[in-house]
Design goal:
Layout lengths: L1 H9 L5 H27 L2 H23 L6 H18 L2 H6 L15 H19 L8 H22 L11 H24 L2 H8 L2 H12 L6 H13 L1
Helix pairs in contact: 2-6, 2-7, 3-4, 3-6, 3-9, 4-10, 4-11, 8-9, 10-11
């Protein structure tokens, strides 16, 4: 709704192709979000978050280098490597990893819980970034509107099918937080579209994947959470990589 209000201000003219790519974004985004939260439900953030973020950055980075002819300088390559390593470091905590050590006598699976979902979420985010970058700059934010409408329909439909109507209702005390999250989320998506049309996808996608560093830093500042040494290394690498 907020995006629809600002569309006339931003302007643009979308073709059917732009809207189709936007719909692809919506499908990929809904799938990625579903897998991410499923992974967090069965696994831990220390495993799921870095997998989804690094893969979500690596896939569009490889696409930009291989199919769009993007050639960052050597300093940019060093920054990309530092940024990807930063995502892993800030997302990992010893406590989270220890929480999923196999119990004695229990049969350990091939991967810890949440790995499969984290990998699938990363693929979904990667496809989302690539598809959104296929739209024309002249299309403005109309492809993003198509993406959001598609993902909302899929998520609402899936929520109702698997959890009933009550599963998609927002409790009144949480409404303010949800609206705030919507503002931040849509603002981030708008900025990504602008960045992808003006710069290299290989760099833009990696910078976008640094969101775990911001989350960890804010948790330390606002919530007074104590960071481990590995996480401090990750925050430093994130700043250096950017």
């Amino acid at each position: 709704l907020l995006l629809a209000v600002v569309l006339p201000v931003i302007g643009g003219h979308a073709t059917g192709r732009d809207l189709a790519w936007g719909a692809v974004c919506g499908v990929a985004g809904a799938f990625a979000i579903g897998m991410l939260y499923r992974g967090l439900a069965v696994g831990t953030m220390g495993i799921v978050s870095p997998l989804s973020a690094v893969l979500g950055a690596s896939i569009p980075m490889v696409y930009g280098l291989a199919f769009r002819g993007e050639r960052p300088g050597w300093l940019a390559y060093a920054g990309i490597a530092a940024a990807l390593l930063a995502v892993v470091c800030v997302s990992v905590s010893e406590r989270a990893l220890e929480a999923h050590e196999p119990a004695r006598g229990a049969r350990a699976g091939l991967f810890p819980p949440g790995v499969r979902e984290g990998l699938l979420a990363g693929v979904g985010f990667g496809v989302y970034f690539i598809a959104l970058a296929q739209t024309r700059a002249d299309a403005g934010m109309y492809p993003l509107l198509a993406a959001r409408v598609t993902s909302i329909v899929l998520l609402l439909g899936g929520g109702i099918v698997f959890g009933g109507v009550r599963a998609v209702l927002v409790a009144r005390p949480a409404l303010t937080i949800v609206i705030g999250c919507g503002l931040l989320d849509m603002g981030a998506n708008v900025l990504f579209v602008l960045a992808a049309h003006r710069g290299m996808l290989a760099i833009v996608a990696v910078l976008t994947s640094l969101y775990p560093a911001a989350t960890v830093a804010l948790a330390a500042i606002v919530l007074r959470e104590r960071l481990g040494r590995i996480q401090w290394v990750g925050v430093t690498l994130a700043l250096g990589g950017a």
